[in-house]
Amino acid sequence: MIWQFGAFALGSYLLGSLPIGLIIGRLLKGVDIREYGSGKTGMTNTLRTLGPRAAATVFLLDILKGVIPVLIAKWVSPDARLQVVAALAAILGHDFPIYAGFRGGRGVATSMGATAAMMPLLGPFIPLIGGLVLIPYRYASLMSIVGTVVSGGIVIALALTHRVPEAYAWYAVIAATLIVFLHRENIVRLRAGTEPKIGQGGKRRGKPQRISGQP
Fold this sequence. Notes:
About 65% of the residues lie in helices and about 0% in strands. It contains 10 helices and no strands. The model is unreliable at about 210-215 (pLDDT under 50).
């Protein structure tokens, strides 16, 4: 069983590390989207940099990076802990991709995919929760933070009432904490009233610092 956890942790991390936004930016416009906007590789920065079609593609593929490892884990073993390991490893891969100098996204879409794969009945409600925040306020970061916290709270409540495995609660706590932590700069800007709204803020960034080991 230990080897299964190790294999899923490694395999899920490597799958999650696929920098979809970076790849699409290179293919479509020959740019590194990390040099623009927020410097991240996820859907929101892709929208700012490459437009809605590219953003939709990135969003879907980033979701699949969370779905695929969890579904395989479900198929291999009934142990919910294996699903949690697969999910968290995929999220870490997305956030800190080995193929892209450990500069990735914030893991929101990948977390959504993993959560939906673990709890299919909850899946449709996650974008609904996000939409209730995004439509009136138009802050993608606020949508991500609130949606993550609310969804995580629902998962924890389900675990406490024994409707889902206890391991899912640990997943919710870790995934939500990581996402909120990676949005810490956004939280500062939201409080200061300087956070760009959806589709805004796609200007070129200053020259990024060279990361050790990155070409």
